[in-house]
Structure to design on (195 residues):
């Protein structure tokens, strides 16, 4: 018997009036068409301190919104991250969300007297959808896709999430309404395919 897909869509854009918001909503619409269970985390709506003030030296208690977000991440078997690429990386609020939530004992666990670690999110898959103000080939070739390296390799795969697929959409800046409609049609198909 096939396990029902449980998806959490993590919207990393701090602006509610963004194309990333349209992407997140369209993806959810596409995935919902297949009767998939879906939850959403809209990071900008969460109340939390994005700074990991003491690193891993001293525990900072998680705010209620982060505890609720973690429940959703643990519940899901597929994580969809939607974010713009700013200065080659993630928006600051998304980085703060990861710093505060993807912690030892939760997302991974270092082994005693070892350089190795346990990957506590193994068994989950992910899809990163990022928007760019340049063609994706340029971002990959000239900049070596730093936001993807950070989120895919240094965070998700580090914690055991595999496979992690990536979709690039750009350039978005100065794109026409018609082009954006075509991109959203592709996003809806992604949602249907991933469900």
């Amino acid at each position: 018997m096939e396990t029902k897909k449980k998806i959490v869509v993590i919207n990393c854009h701090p602006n509610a009036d963004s194309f990333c918001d349209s992407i997140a909503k369209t993806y959810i619409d596409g995935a919902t068409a297949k009767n998939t269970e879906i939850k959403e985390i809209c990071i900008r709506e969460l109340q939390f301190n994005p700074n990991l003030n003491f690193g891993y030296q001293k525990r900072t208690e998680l705010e209620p919104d982060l505890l609720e977000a973690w429940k959703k991440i643990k519940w899901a078997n597929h994580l969809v991250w939607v974010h713009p690429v700013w200065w080659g990386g993630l928006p600051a609020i998304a980085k703060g969300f990861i710093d505060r939530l993807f912690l030892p004992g939760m997302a991974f666990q270092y082994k005693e007297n070892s350089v190795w670690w346990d990957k506590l999110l193994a068994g989950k898959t992910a899809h990163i959808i990022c928007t760019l103000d340049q063609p994706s080939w340029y971002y990959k070739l000239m900049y070596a896709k730093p936001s993807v390296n950070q989120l895919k390799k240094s965070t998700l795969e580090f914690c055991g999430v595999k496979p992690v697929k990536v979709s690039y959409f750009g350039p978005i800046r100065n794109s026409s309404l018609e082009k954006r409609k075509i991109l959203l049609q592709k996003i809806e198909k992604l949602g249907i395919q991933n469900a």
Helices lie at 19-32, 64-75, 92-101, 136-143, 146-157, 177-194.
